[in-house]
Amino acid sequence: MTAPVLTSIVPGAGPLHSSACFVRFYLPMKFQASPPTPLPELNLKPYTCDSHYTAVRKFSGFARDSNIVQEAQKLATRLSRSPWANSTSEESRSTYSIAQYNSPFRLIGCVNEVWVDVNASGLLFDSFY
């Protein structure tokens, strides 16, 4: 398995305007020049990510629907109080993404992140906590 496994949430893209999601797996550099061919019945599509800026909030434990939404809200609140307020990227296909770095069989010490793409052109960079 690769890390992180990135699940992006797209509100209103599912049936009856429900949320939909898509999952992306990182392909290590040694396979990027000649990626393995997936089985056709899996309906997998390659995705190439251009350089961009992402706001990130790290959290521990299992990534569950209940705490994912809470962590996404905490990141949104934090962004609203920062120089990046109102700078979420309009080019993003999703509202937010969840990056999971550990095997689902790991019981303690799990590391997860909530990601939100931001449009950082013209902003000065500094981290905030």
From TrEMBL:
Residues passing through the membrane, by range: none
Superkingdom of origin: Eukaryota
PANTHER family registered for this protein in UniProt: HEME-BINDING PROTEIN 2, HEME-BINDING PROTEIN-RELATED
Family, similarity comment: Belongs to the HEBP family.
The protein, known as: Putative SOUL heme-binding protein
UniProt source species: Rosa chinensis
